[in-house]
Amino acid sequence: MSDKLKVGILGATGMVGQRFISLLENHPWFEVVTVAASPRSAGKTYEEAVGDRWKMDTPMPEAVKKLVVYNVNEVEKVAATVDFVFSAVDMTKDEIKAIEEAYAKTETPVVSNNSAHRWTPDVPMMVPEINADHAEVIEFQKKRLGTERGFVAVKPNCSIQSYAPVLTAWMPFEPYEVIVSTYQAISGAGKTFKDWPEMLGNIIPYIGGEEEKSEKEPLRIWGKVDKENGVIVPAEGITITSQCIRVPVLNGHTATVFVKFRKNPTKEQLIEAMTSFKGAPQELGLPSAPKQFIQYLEEDNRPQVALDVDFEKGMGISVGRLREDSVYDWKFVGLSHNTVRGAAGGAVLCAELLKAKGYITKK
């Protein structure tokens, strides 16, 4: 009998669900034993349910091919088979909130890629290198839910990963005003070029809901745990305005960022601060943690999606073109892998952190 934690994937047939399955193949701590999806996939093997819609560039792991897909709505049945679940379901926000809390109430921790619970005050929204301490709010959430071990934790939006970690590293210099434009890959919409041929040679200057997430979610990540009221209080004193654009790239969100500081850092200080920045995942040696969280590239034409998106197996952030600005103080270009660090990989790292801290255990 394996001593690995038994994992279920909710929404296993979609692109993020597939990314979870590919990332968890041979994971040292976690083993995928259950896959769940919509009623139309239930009862089929995973291989049959996905059919020709496997979107990863690595083959479907043999270990999951013959798993029979559960109906994700049969909460008790799915929960009985696992120690915890990753959630990547495709439903309305209200449906996602309800089903994730339903799983939590079966004493099954839920680590979610979805946005539905990102602003639930007692749900931690975590980039593990930045705000591992937000896990403390879980105890308050469990009281609300009436659970002993069940809870919901989420990871933030993929669009903020290419710049929020950099700004975090620069907090000693007191950034207070930020303009960011993100150039977002089509896999962020769960698509490939085969699914979305009209994106070839095209740019769409709108992604629903993305600009609000890009402006507000970093503030929650930088917030504090209010232990008196059992909630996360978002940070104040920094303003972000953004534009989010869909571009003809498969994987990789690029951001161009302009920053004003209250203090006056040098270029050398900024580079040193970001390249030496690390957090709990590096200190704890978590399996999915990048050794180098943020790299700085000196070449004028970097970072590039083609060259840099897979830095640290897609879990690292690449930064380049740091230079003084004539209107703002400094500007830079950041790049992150949107379905690895920005989605499934970020959630796996979050689960590793929660296991290391004792929040996720065997049932």
Report what the structure shows.
The chain contains 13 helices and 14 strands. It is globular, with a radius of gyration of 20 Å. The protein is of the alpha/beta class. 28% of the residues lie in helices and 21% in strands. The protein has helices at 15-24, 46-50, 62-65, 75-79, 93-105, 128-131, 138-145, 164-169, 210-221, 267-275, 280-284, 305-308, 340-356; strands at 5-10, 30-37, 70-71, 84-87, 110-112, 152-154, 175-184, 224-226, 231-233, 239-246, 253-261, 294-297, 317-324, 330-336. It has 2 domains: 5-157 and 344-356, Rossmann fold (3-Layer(aba) Sandwich), CATH 3.40.50; 160-337, Dihydrodipicolinate Reductase, domain 2 (2-Layer Sandwich), CATH 3.30.360.10.
